[in-house]
Amino acid sequence: MHPLLDTLLADSARANAPGRPFALLAREGTGVLEVLLGDVVDVELLADIPLVDASGTPQQVLALVPFRQVRERGYECNDDGEPLRCLIVREREEVPLAAAMALLPQEEIPLHDGHFDVTDEDYAATVRDVIEHEIGRGEGANFVIRRDFTARVDADPATAALSWLHALLTHERGAYWTFAIVTDGLVTVGASPEAHVRVDGGTVIMNPISGTFRHPAEGPTVAAMRGFLTDTKETEELFMVVDEELKMMSAICAQGGRITGPHLKQMSRLTHTEYVLSGHSDLDPREILRETMFAPTVTGSPMQNACAVIRRHETSPRGYYSGVVALFTPSAEHAGTHDLDAPILIRTAYLRAGVLRVPVGATLVRHSTPEGEVSETHGKAAGVLGAIGAVPRGAVADADVPRLADDPELRALLESRNERLAPFWLRPQIALHEADDTAFTGRTAIVVDAEDRFTTMLAHQLRHLGLDVEVVPWQEADPAALAAADLVVAGPGPGDPRDAENPRIARMREVVTTRLALERPLLAVCLSHQILADALGLDLAPLATPHQGLQRTVELFGAPATIGFYNTFTATVMPGVDALVTDEGEIIEIAADADGTVQGIRGLNLASVQGHLESILSSDGVETLERLIGYALHR
Questions:
Q1: What was the pLDDT predicted at 491?
Q2: pLDDT over 90 at 424, yes or no
Q3: Segments of the chain assigned to CATH 3.60.120.10
Q4: How far, in Å, are 6, 70, 87, 251 from residue 327 at the CA level?
Q5: Tens of pLDDT, residues 362-411
Q6: Residue tagged active-site, from 86, 274, 526, 626
Q7: pLDDT tens, residue by residue, 200-235
Q8: 3-state secondary structure of 498
Q9: Catalytic residue among 237, 291, 614, 626, which?
């Protein structure tokens, strides 16, 4: 007998009868259906999630975290007022999955007037606009723009939720969580492929998934998969989101994060590529969740600007889409702490007031085509709608679908991706006192963040090299502290470096020029490199094609360096120019391509680089960073 599940199912069988809020969770690899019943409270902030009861006793909480919580990080959003909803678990049981499947209802739930709220033509126009006016003007490397499939549903909400859950468990494969959550006025049912963040005894795991292969009607084949795994757009899309999540890991884990993978995530209609990132943190899991809002796979990068782009281009608020469902569980091994398991709210259907909504999005990068991204949204929606029986599921039986990850050729293609990546991030991250290279021990550095958290990765590498590092936002950079630091690192950020009216650009220009006037060591990266070049009298211009997520090998002052680039603008000189002389007679060296594209600058007390030495794409990153810092510090 399964008393909680039996009672829940009996209550739901009485159509429109009031019932207690509940959640049913089938988590990957557990073989059970978790039944959670309790009370619902809505809170304002993540820090308000009640992890202990009135007596101070730890309690389990399941939280639906809406996208609007990005306001906690100071980011923009179309604010719909969707609540941060917490199910305080009062009763729970685990039911073997096979037994639960035999009990769940299997009713067909008809949908009426199904359609996308944004037409294919309008969505394609948005894709073009984002590529041209956002990526093409330096606002970021990639952005996720969503649209919603909507339909009317006449069935009882609880019955629909339980029937859809049964269908997802039957027809979907590869999901990280398959779940149904029913609270007053809202049904949430999904099969999320992606764990956003997990915390287990202080070990933090993130799981960036990106790149989408839509299975053909006859099912996936090795030949078709080969083309997907060698596709530049799909490969770079994954690398970009790994970079973005490493920014988060570097912010919450003192020793940074290590990359393992890549792997294939095969589902019923789609296959994705993924990496796993791991590190250690002593932070409260609610703080970890706040610092990682939200996954770049459903927002974009850099994160802060991605939120602004979403606000400009999406026609309605996101609700819970791209947020997380977060399960906080009292730790069995570490008293007084909670573990966290938080998948992303994607491949999820929402039912409210008789209207079904299935939000889906596509990741737009410089290689995107409007037609391809429109097709991707159809494929993602079909994955959910097909599983719940709203659209035909296709003729290929699950048992007949090959496990693509078992194919040796495909495994080799996946593993070859790591040959391009920085070894620094592929090996275990070690404590600073154990680091092999502490070349700058005792020196202080302030990293000025220009709204790109690549600075957290950069700071981690600087600490690895022995520096005592503080990261400060551009608005909070104290002039006295900047003047006193042994090294100031002017960081990267989005936008046009020529835009003097932009307060952030203007402040970064002040940081650079003030440091030059003080004749104190300065390292400038990407956007700040361009600002430095402009201050030295070099020309700035947009690239013919944005270098967002591009890996190149360039010459930097006599040595080749393989570096990851995320830039839309560049400094330029006449071909063949390798130096300039300041009014004071100082010689400034310039590292430029044959066409005059400037990749680096160095002189007395200063060095700069156009690329991101901290990126996973910079296989020579740490070594090049040490070389440039050594020059700026006269080592």
A1: 97
A2: yes
A3: 3-419
A4: 23, 19, 9, 22
A5: 989 888 899 999 998 998 888 788 878 766 655 444 445 677 888 899 99
A6: 526
A7: 988 999 999 888 888 887 778 888 888 889 888 888
A8: coil
A9: 614
Choice between 621 and 302, residue whose per-residue pLDDT is larger: 621
The CATH code belonging to domain 3-419 is 3.60.120.10
DSSP readout, 400-468?
GS--GGG-HHHHHHHHHGGGGS-HHHHS----GGG-S--TTTT-EEEEEESS-THHHHHHHHHHHTT-E
The yes-or-no answer on residue 476 being catalytic is no
Is 577 a residue whose pLDDT tops 70? yes
612 as an active site residue: the answer is yes
Q: Which one-letter amino acid corresponds to residue 246?
A: L
Q: At 430, list the tokens.
A: 């070690």
Instruction: Enumerate the CATH 3.40.50.880 domain ranges in the chain, comma separated.
Output: 423-632
- Right CATH number for 423-632 from 3.40.930.10, 3.90.1150.200, 1.10.1740.10, 3.40.50.880? 3.40.50.880
- What are the tens digits of pLDDT across the range 505-526? 999 999 999 999 999 999 999 9
Cβ-contact 562, 553 below 8 angstroms: yes
Reply yes or no on whether 2 is catalytic.
no
Encoded tokens for 2? 């399964």
Beta-strand pair 606-609/522-525: parallel
